[in-house]
Amino acid sequence: MSPTQAVALLLELSCYGSALWRYSSKSPHHHIVSTRSAIKLEYEGTLFSEWQVPETCSIKDKRSPKTEMHCSEGVHAIKPIVTGQEEEERYLPVDTTYICFLWYYTVRNMFETLTQVVSIWVYDPEYADSEELLWKAETPSPHSRVLTNHFAIVGQKPIIYTTIRRKIYVPDDKLINWTWRVTLPMTRDDVIKNIKGSQVIFQDCFISDFTFLLTFPVYLQPEVPGFLPISSPAGSQLMLSWDACFPSLAVVVADMETFQTNDSFCTWSRVRVPPNILSDAARHSVSAVLLLHDNIYFLINGVLYLKDIKKLTKLGRTNHLPEGEIIGITSRRWCWIKYIVKNIKLISNIAVWTKNEIYFGYTEDKFVKMITTTELKKLLNLPPTGTLTIHNIDYTGHPLELAVLLNYCITCTDTKKIYMVIYNEDSMKWVPQDFILDVPIDSFLVPRFLLSGMPELILWDKHKVYYSYQNFTTIGVLQTSAGHGNLSALSNDSIIHDVYIDSQGNIVTKMENNIMFYSKSNTKDALKLHLWTNDTMKSSFCVSASAQIYLVYVFDDGTIQPQEYPLILELQSVAFRMKEKCPYVMFHDNISESFHFLDKGKSLKVWAEIIYPENTGLDIIVKVYGPQILEYEESSHYEIALGYCTNTLSMTFYSNVNYEGVDDYFSFEHKNMGNIFVQLRPSQHANVCPVTQKVFQIGVGCDPQKFIEVKGFSTIACAHHEFFYEIDKAYLRHQPPKNLKVRYDWEKFGCPLRLTGHEKFQPLIQLFDDSGHIEDVAVNFILWEIHGRNDYSYNNSMKQSGCLNEAQTWKTMIELHKDLPLEDVWGPENYRPCFSYAIGKPGDLDQPYEIINISNKNHIFWPLHHSGMYVFRVKILDPNYSFCNLTTTFAIEISGVIPRPSGYLVSAIVFVLMLMFLSVLVLSYFQYMNLYKRNIYNPYYKTQIKQKKY
Ligand SMILES: *[C@@H]1O[C@H](CO)[C@@H](O)[C@H](O)[C@H]1NC(C)=O
Ligand SMILES: *[C@@H]1O[C@H](CO)[C@@H](O)[C@H](O)[C@H]1NC(C)=O
Ligand SMILES: *[C@@H]1O[C@H](CO)[C@@H](O)[C@H](O)[C@H]1NC(C)=O
Ligand SMILES: *[C@@H]1O[C@H](CO)[C@@H](O)[C@H](O)[C@H]1NC(C)=O
Ligand SMILES: *[C@@H]1O[C@H](CO)[C@@H](O)[C@H](O)[C@H]1NC(C)=O
């Protein structure tokens, strides 16, 4: 080869060369890359000559572009040798590991019982069959059967834990067809499931825990013959949308087809639309796509279309949406299942905007116009001469907030200013933010908010990525090692296609030619990653069920394929080359849940710990975002050992509000409720740190899953039958003219407890949530008979209970609130204790005390001893107990009021009976005479039949 030829070749390679190489292991998401693993190498291109690997790795066939190797422990430099071209070297870390085996699962849906049966087995990725490796197996492979059996014999038993609702599901005792079977209820909101086994070892190896998502099955809409493809304009990059709470559900729009999947592209189908709704040109003009559960929204020529299971519909004027002017649509990117909502019933799930108007979409395709730029201009105090238009919109990391970016310019020739307003759906307020960006007039920025406490976002145009961290105080452009922020200059002038952001703070910027840059949230520089995909491939990022990044490729023949991308290994390799190090060794915490409810009187104690080399002086920074309704205390603890410093930060969050005696209890409660975000981060970090921050939410308010019950009552342990009874008017509080007829509602009142009229009763109130019993309620409560009976009493007097002044009673409370229904006259909102001379008046302290708690020995009893049915409702009276309105109902049937025979009583009764007999005899003589006389002259009067009374 002559020198000129070589130069020509080199030039050609650098211009057209798309050679690159990849590696992979057999475990999903490169979970295990260890000395046991076969690491596959794959060179893509033509001029390959051989692999260059260190001696510590044994390679099968170093001359084959596709081969396998095993390595001993260490970081290994690996690269292919290619004729006339210098290929990139990767540094692959290989560890010895005690984890060799993985869990495999399949799911069967049982619609009759609304359950899902998960079959679980153990497999060894190094010996799995191809079905298992492709995650398409229905039954365990022979090797997995042996392995599973062996583990079962030594006592292994996988248990499914859910992350959100904290439930635990255990398998049946025996293996069935070499699998453990766990039955779970189908749920919509408890999607994250973890399979964990016991610490059982086989061949010095454990089984790795495994996380997956499981909900109600979502069916892919089948392709209908005769339906036509829908796509983006020719030459467009891929557009992608996944369900924030169930990312296995995704849709990809390419320039020739649209694809959907419900299992992270293991299986997929094409989305096609019926002919004659869209013109051919419109069918190929999708400019935005959104997936919300099984609804796909397409934006085509400024009009919104919805494709659901049944049909494709245009959402236009009839749905209160503009037609032809819509420029953008967006939905939430972060999944929050629990949060406190104070004011509204429904939160939006989609935002739609034109240049001048913003619309929110709710379930059932209801759309509402929220605001216009005219109103926003006033809000921002901008002079009316300038032009304000909507630039872009993104939901933030907060469950109830949305951010609007606005363009503002006066002459509108060279530059414009970008402003930001954040809307909180619950407080219904638009709040201008401390954020202004000067950009060229024609630049278009895409914002993405990170999952963070304070608003933090990145924005990108074609060439640069801007960041704005820590409440808009740290703003800039991500810098590269080349000393500038122009990513196009480092990627053959390609432009930014998309940016992937995940909940761990990884930010990966992908150029249209598949060159990628990495940066971590809160860092200011980006690292160029190794090439993974050639520049002609149409690709995009996705996130798997176990929250791992992967790529999807769309091929020209109209097929789509997922490919795993080992982001962390790739990053480690680049960092190894750049000698980048994380300033700390470890940053961890004990905060397992991202959301905590905090009820009155409760506190939340958590800790976070950072371990770093001595003399570097790192700290943990705590930021709290949200209304100021919580107190916060922290204490630090330092320890130095073996050259490392451990800094432990313990935090306590609590609310210090006293609700007793406040004037407007419910609005005071309302004021003190809300969502607080807490963000913890080390004072320094780098792109290579595995964890750079921790965000969690504290919901101060009522956990809707909380409820109370009276111990010993049930709704099912009795036969339900139609049953009416009558309450004598004399026993009713409000003294009606007639007796009250009541239908007993078994569903609501439950099974009554049967007592004799001589027994007394103190209900024991227990607090539960969906995971079971929390505590026996020790605070004050009151009860009332819901039909208004008052023929029961309390055995403690006010004096015995320690009252200094007259206590509140139902009687006095009803008099004070004549206009209110019985259940509203008395409660935590107006409770005043009687134990102080300062509150209330002296009075008759011999009256019964009508407030009960576990320890005051106050019971209800039935002074008249007659039989009857009582339906009581209980209400917690203590204003400092809970944000929830805790009440429950129980019923008591008083029966069998037969006095016990005693010698004295028996003779007394006999005497009385004899006396009665004699008097009846005497009386009847006179009565007879009377009747005889009357009946001679008057007709016989009607006899009345009396109804049985309870
Ligand atoms: C076990 O597998 C056999 C053969 O595939 C099948 O017929 C049988 O129904 C399975 N048993 C259960 C309980 O699933
Ligand atoms: C995905 O859709 C297919 C076909 O509609 C269905 O058989 C499967 O159960 C679905 N999977 C999930 C996880 O919902
Ligand atoms: C690019 O990569 C894809 C997928 O790996 C491959 O099918 C294709 O042939 C490659 N194209 C070129 C030009 O090498
Ligand atoms: C964020 O910035 C706003 C406006 O500058 C300020 O009012 C707010 O207190 C800041 N929040 C935090 C958590 O620092
Ligand atoms: C409790 O009841 C009050 C008054 O009826 C109401 O304003 C409040 O929203 C209720 N609280 C909850 C958590 O349901």
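^ 2-acetamido-2-deoxy-beta-D-glucopyranose complex. The CA atoms of residues 137 and 301 lie 43 Å apart. The longest helix spans residues 903-937.
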